[in-house]
Specification:
The chain has about 425 residues and is of the alpha/beta class. The chain has two domains: about 170 residues, Rossmann fold (3-Layer(aba) Sandwich), CATH 3.40.50; about 220 residues, Glycogen Phosphorylase B (Rossmann fold, 3-Layer(aba) Sandwich), CATH 3.40.50. About 30% of the residues lie in helices and about 20% in strands. The protein has twelve helices and 16 strands. The strands form four sheets. Strands 2-1-3-4-5-8 form a six-stranded parallel beta sheet, sandwiched between helices. The longest helix is centred in the C-terminal third of the chain and has 18 residues. The radius of gyration is 27 Å and the shape is globular.
């Protein structure tokens, strides 16, 4: 009997954790399918849409509703935020996307310490987890009862790119047929909670900087495409995003460049078409922090210049010689953006908008120079950050699990028939 490996994860959801789950499961199957019995318990992920996988996807054949109460998993894998980690198997692996700030929440540390191995997406997340400590206090006396720190192993497992899926030559996808501009900056990501300039992706600041940079420069202006939403893909959500964009536009007088909103569900194929579209010339992000930065990786492999903040998870794979990394400074998380995971005592990155503005303008004016450099980024990702490389790395982290011993057939010695007659001569 093969060792049983059960993976609990939001594999069928339209979410970043859903994408992380699909990559991990496919990599696990490639590495261990011949050795392990791999089963999956699909989980929800907040309010994100469900049923991402096609009905005929072979991964769905591995779905189970719940654990077999009569058989403990040999390997238990849980892909979620670390505070939810629970040891269920004989060997327990916790997989998370990582952390976007300078502090690993105390509940994350406690959850990680319940697992035998923790896997995060970036060096940034690993370093933050290792260097974070907390004083745990008694709820009644407020006295310090223990010092909480990471005590279990933690390793970096990046989110590998499927080269057959993402690496294609630029094309006219048809998705941007209604956009008149031939030069577009693209941003992809959620417009997360927070006051202006304080949401984690810093979308508001990006819009403001883009408008200020390219206002009044004549008729031949670039455009900014925002593939974004706030909570969901409802009509109300779309109208809210439009209101936010227009409120920023009203603050800036003059002849302003166009901003286009893509709001709604897009398949992996459509996102790849968007990133590779001829009208998309550069990917731009003012993000304050990324556990990994998957949209940045998916855009960068197209070989188009990437302009982004120089801090957190994505700097693992965004090579500074082939892209434009913008400096800035760390600043405490604003109360409007803080929650149970983004604590206001922690810090994240604030991009220098003056430098970012000059970079965007230079990429627009001298595009050929940046395009030639960014082509090397594609090869860099192919050589070091592919799905196959991720699978090789994962295999080094997986435990050695012996198959359950086979039931041995009980073989009794054969009994010889005893003769009834006794030879008296032989007894004397």
């Amino acid at each position: 009997m093969k060792p049983l490996c059960v993976v609990s994860c939001p594999i069928d959801t339209f979410s970043g954790y859903g994408a992380r789950s699909r990559d991990f499961v496919k990599s696990l199957i490639k590495a261990k399918d011949n050795e392990w019995d791999i089963q999956i318990i699909p989980q929800r992920w907040g309010d994100t849409p469900w049923n991402f996988l096609p009905k005929n996807d072979p991964i769905k054949q591995r779905f189970i509703g719940k654990l077999d109460p009569n058989r403990q998993p040999d390997i238990w894998v849980q892909i979620t935020v670390p505070n939810e980690f629970q040891p269920v198997g004989k060997f327990n692996i916790g997989v998370t996307a990582g952390i976007e700030t300078t502090i690993y929440p105390g509940e994350f540390l406690e959850g990680s310490n319940r697992m035998d191995l923790n896997l995060v997406s970036s060096k940034h997340s690993k370093d933050v987890a290792i260097h974070t400590t907390f004083d745990k206090k008694d709820s009644n006396t407020n006295e310090i009862v223990s010092n909480v720190k990471l005590e279990k192993p933690i390793e970096v497992l990046f989110e590998g790119l499927d080269l057959d899926k993402y690496y294609k030559k630029p094309q006219d996808s048809g998705l941007l047929k209604d956009i008149k501009e031939d030069f577009c900056f693209l941003f992809t990501g959620h417009w997360l909670p927070g006051a202006f300039g304080e949401d984690r992706k810093d979308v508001g600041k990006l819009i403001h900087t883009f408008l200020e940079t390219f206002k009044g420069i004549g008729n031949k202006k670039p455009a900014l495409i925002l593939k974004t939403n706030a909570i969901n893909y409802s009509l109300m959500d779309r109208e809210d995003i439009i209101t936010r964009i227009n409120s920023i536009r009203k603050e800036i007088p003059g002849n302003l460049p166009n901003i286009y909103l893509l709001h709604g569900e897009m398949t992996d194929k459509e996102m790849n078409q968007l990133n590779n579209d001829n009208k998309v010339k550069s990917f731009v992000s003012f993000t304050k922090g990324e556990g990994y930065g998957r949209p940045l990786a998916e855009a960068a492999i197209t070989g188009k210049p990437t302009i982004c903040s120089n801090w957190s998870g994505h700097v693992d794979f965004i090579h500074p010689d082939y892209n434009v990394l913008i400096g800035g400074k760390l600043k405490e998380v604003h109360p409007s953006a803080a929650n149970q995971w983004l604590m206001k005592e922690s810090q994240w990155f604030n991009i220098n908008t003056d430098i970012a503005s000059r970079a965007m303008k230079d990429v627009f004016k001298n595009y050929k120079k940046y395009w030639e450099k960014s082509r090397k980024q594609t090869q860099y990702l192919k050589d070091n950050w592919s799905f196959n490389k991720m699978t090789e790395l994962l295999n080094t982290f997986l435990p050695k699990v012996e198959a359950a011993p086979k039931v041995q057939e009980l073989k009794l010695p054969k009994l010889k028939k005893v003769k009834n007659k006794i030879n008296l001569n032989e007894l004397t």
